């Protein structure tokens, strides 16, 4: 990237986390000399009704006039240089930095449009999407950042931003850390991209190389958080919860070491690793919904419910506690379980497997603690699992 | 140790944690073929009054007749083979395994008596004491286990048992993990000693070699927990707390790497490391008292209080919340700060130093977040600090 080219940033998505990160990116773009002042934010257009009127109005228009995402991040003022754009083609026109922060199910339809409109040679991406794809042919997990890179083609590089970043707290400016993973070219470019997100002292972004480890942590932590909800419902206290988090981190590291290349042990100690896992296991919707699931089960554990009833129970909880939004943890859990099952690795990942069995196969919630155990140390674990890394077959 | 010698176990101490671990040790000794059935527990004799009578009775007699430590672990039945002994000489007579679980201020007076009475050649120890000594001459931290080894002489080996082990939860049989650190001779002996403590599935003990790392974690975590209390009082939420815990673990690792030999990175991922730190930062008395301290300060931060007023405030909190018991975190903090100050290392340990300055030098509580930052990755941190390890001068 030559210095004459300014970064044209486009945020793809405008939900809760997208709007929160827009507060940082907007203020930084206005300040950083190498960025265009205006940051576009693609908005999946919908109509909202404001308290002061009965007439529904378009969300993008509200964002641009009131500088507030009244639906997904109410009460927080967005920087005035954040421009909501409902037309994707227009939003990403000539963009050099794409920030992906939307449900990943949207990607297949959007990526061809994005590819056709961004800056042809100087565009890079950072994904804030928490999830994993699953390749049914190779039976391997696929990183969303890789899916984006492949769809964008032409050597497009996509990193990730992951960390202990509950969106509302970030938006309110409460101090936290975040991890930018990716190597976008050279040190200068890496530092530029870090600066786009960093708002020290309250949003401290550290950069690492290991995209796979950081991104997988973002998906896998939600599985462990389901286990945390089960432990909470069982009334087991702080020791057990800490053991669950520790063993969960080890299973995460083992999974990453086995299925992805370039995973570094240190990643699990970054904000995207242990810090995000801790926050998610103490707060967060996955923990909460799992606690509710377990409480309903514990109320009558004699019924050995089948997969269909489990699904129905999760749907009921999603309807009641999340207004029908899908829980990320159970989605990731089903993907991870397919991978483990197809490779007969359930026994090697006892924690993940037990969380699956409780969530979908009617295993009693009280079995949770049986799976909180590990025989090997962390160091030995990652070394062994890396040496046993699976080749795509 | 030949197979013909049975382990004669003596627990030195009978407080809350001592009584809790006695439930595990007692049941194990009764079951394990290489242990004498009876386990003696040295009780610092005091008089207690039972609800059914007005006449005070001796605590040791109550423990032996009711099999319950009515004062320090009420409601939990101790195994009947735990024998409370108020006379130290009698308690440790011919002992081959000493379990130290008492305030470490008691040690200087007790160790000569213990040394003179245990089995002359076959005795080993495991310390459950959480604290650090400070050598005012060398200005170096001293492990309690080392103090014990030196006082016992004759090649006495002392390991430690540390972990996310809130005593009451352990006593109630709620599932947790613990870390036994020490190398007591060979694999067989190590496994024997592990089995004395382990009560799987609810008390899972893993053994590692690194005594220094495990023991120092047990003391240093209480310092970080004070910071957690400050963060809680500031109402900063889960992201900030997770960042504090993460950066706290890094400072702990850095401190250990700099001041002790043989510290292994993996130790910080064992139960004695991250798991104990998490439990202590969410529950625990150090967090709670620090939250109270911060709330009192925040109620009137305009007063720039001096060290004396800070001390008075802590004493008031100890009186009100701990019935006058001393907080371990502030004691460890003062020891660690003496070390850092005398070596001009305050800037290298910004988190510990800020917690000290808030606790004892009138620094505003709101400064806490300024110190939750780290520039280097965990791996790099430990590597660098080890290479800069200080020699005893």
UniProtKB/TrEMBL annotation, chains A, B:
One of its GO terms (biological process) is glycerol-3-phosphate catabolic process. One of its GO terms (molecular function) is glycerol-3-phosphate dehydrogenase (NAD+) activity. NAD(+) binds at residues 13-18, 44, 106, 167, 285, 326, 328. The keyword Oxidoreductase applies. Residues 8-182 form the Glycerol-3-phosphate dehydrogenase NAD-dependent N-terminal domain. Pfam families: NAD_Gly3P_dh_C, NAD_Gly3P_dh_N. Its EC number is 1.1.1.8. Residues 210-368 form the Glycerol-3-phosphate dehydrogenase NAD-dependent C-terminal domain. Coiled coil: none annotated. Keywords: NAD, Oxidoreductase. Substrate binds at residues 130, 285-286. It is an enzyme of class 1 (oxidoreductase). Belongs to the NAD-dependent glycerol-3-phosphate dehydrogenase family. This is Glycerol-3-phosphate dehydrogenase [NAD(+)]. It comes from Cyclotella cryptica.
């Amino acid at each position: 990237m030559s210095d004459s080219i300014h970064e044209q940033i486009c945020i793809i998505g405008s939900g809760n986390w997208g709007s929160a990160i827009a507060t940082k990116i907007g203020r930084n773009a206005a300040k950083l000399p190498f960025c265009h002042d205006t940051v576009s934010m693609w908005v999946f257009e919908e109509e909202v009704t404001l308290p002061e009127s009965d007439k529904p109005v378009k969300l993008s228009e509200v964002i641009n006039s009131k500088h507030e995402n009244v639906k997904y991040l109410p009460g927080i003022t967005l920087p005035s240089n954040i421009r909501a754009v409902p037309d994707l083609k227009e939003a990403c026109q000539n963009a050099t930095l794409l920030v992906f922060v939307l449900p990943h199910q949207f990607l297949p339809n959007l990526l061809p449009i994005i590819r056709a409109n961004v800056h042809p040679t100087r565009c890079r991406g950072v994904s804030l999407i928490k999830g994993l794809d699953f390749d049914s042919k190779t039976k391997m997990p696929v990183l969303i950042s890789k899916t984006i890179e492949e769809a964008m083609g032409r050597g497009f590089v996509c990193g990730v931003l992951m960390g202990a970043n509950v969106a509302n707290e970030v938006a309110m400016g409460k101090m936290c850390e975040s991890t930018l993973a990716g190597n976008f070219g050279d040190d200068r470019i890496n530092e530029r991209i870090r600066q786009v997100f960093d708002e020290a002292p309250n949003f401290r972004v550290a950069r690492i190389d290991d995209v796979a480890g950081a991104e997988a942590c973002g998906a896998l932590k939600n599985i462990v958080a389901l286990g945390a909800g089960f432990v909470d419902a069982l009334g087991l206290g702080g020791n057990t919860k800490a053991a669950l988090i520790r063993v969960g981190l080890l299973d995460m590291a083992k999974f990453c070491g086995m299925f992805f290349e370039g995973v570094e042990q240190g990643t699990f100690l970054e904000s995207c690793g242990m810090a995000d896992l801790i926050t998610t296991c103490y707060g967060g919707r996955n923990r909460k919904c799992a606690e509710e699931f377990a409480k309903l089960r514990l109320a009558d554990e004699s019924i050995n419910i089948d997969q269909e009833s489990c699904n129905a129970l999760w749907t009921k909880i999603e309807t009641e506690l999340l207004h029908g939004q899908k829980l990320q943890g159970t989605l990731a859990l089903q993907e991870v379980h397919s991978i483990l099952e197809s490779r007969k690795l359930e026994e090697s990942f006892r924690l993940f497997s037990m969380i699956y069995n409780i969530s979908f196969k009617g295993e009693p919630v009280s079995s949770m603690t049986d799976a909180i155990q590990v025989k090997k140390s962390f160091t030995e674990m990652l070394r062994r699992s890396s040496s046993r890394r699976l080749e795509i077959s």
